[in-house]
């Protein structure tokens, strides 16, 4: 199974600073938090294609309590978007209604990677290759380059027939050949870590030592292999660094894949991984 995607369009979509997805209000810049507290800045609730201004009563890092007046009727546990526009940037949160009373809704902020994850309890090595901004800039300005995602299965029968299954991303040049610069970058390992979890849209990798990176260090190529009782599952995917957290003497890299794995393919992978690893969410 092969997918071909316009690499320039996909990178522009994912790297645009216009929309920034966050999993906590604590990640907002201080000036925006101050404006929310004072009521000078009002978020927007997007529900069933309509936009509603939100009047906040109180909030903390992970919940917002806002007035119900002027809001649509939202069912418990429904998921929707809350957008905080500021200058030319829109900070986007996924919200879920967890409680309501006569006057207000209480909304929980969700992780953008809220789909089920596989928690990796075994030490699975992961290799991070840093893709230089100059190369990303080249891809952004060349419409003839494409992202090819190749898997050696397209059906359940294909999957079962293979002792090794893989999903790999490649960059194709204007001749539809694998780009030589791409080969050079993915062969260089920036850091080696241990895979903590993986989902259809991203992964978390932990490395030893405390690492801080510049804001323009965004794009990586992430490789790891997951053994199960029946077969070996190999992934090599472009990933955007969305966040870094520190835990004791370790650094956790939180990645979103440049494009999510297709649901049908991921369902087959998950079914295999569940026999060996722990499902979360």
Q: Taking all residues together, what is the mean pLDDT?
A: 89
CATH third-level topology of the largest domain: Thrombin, subunit H
**Gyration radius, rounded:** 21 Å
The global form is globular
Number of helices: 6
Largest sheet: 8 strands, mixed
Give start-end ranges of low-pLDDT stretches: none
Instruction: Give the count of structural domains.
Output: 2
Structural class: alpha+beta
Number of strands: 19
Helical residue percent band = 10-25%
CATH architecture of the largest domain: Beta Barrel
Percent in strands: over 45%
**CATH-level-4 superfamily name of the largest domain:** predicted glycosyltransferase like domains
Determine and state the CATH class of the largest domain. Answer: Mainly Beta
Structure notes:
It contains 6 helices and 19 strands. Strand 7 (79-86) and strand 8 form a beta hairpin. The chain folds into 2 domains: 2-14 and 114-280, predicted glycosyltransferase like domains (Thrombin, subunit H); 24-110, Thrombin, subunit H. By secondary structure, the protein is α+β, with helices and mostly antiparallel strands. It has helices at residues 7-15, 30-38, 133-140, 156-161, 180-187, 263-273; strands at 2-6, 19-21, 44-47, 50-53, 56-59, 63-67, 79-86, 89-100, 104-110, 117-119, 125-130, 146-151, 164-172, 191-198, 202-208, 219-227, 232-247, 250-257, 278-280.
Salient structural properties:
8-stranded mixed β-sheet, Thrombin, subunit H, alpha+beta, 6 helices, 6-stranded antiparallel barrel, 281 residues, single chain, 2 domains
Quick structural gist:
The chain has 281 residues and is α+β, with helices and mostly antiparallel strands. Helices cover 18% and strands 45% of the residues.
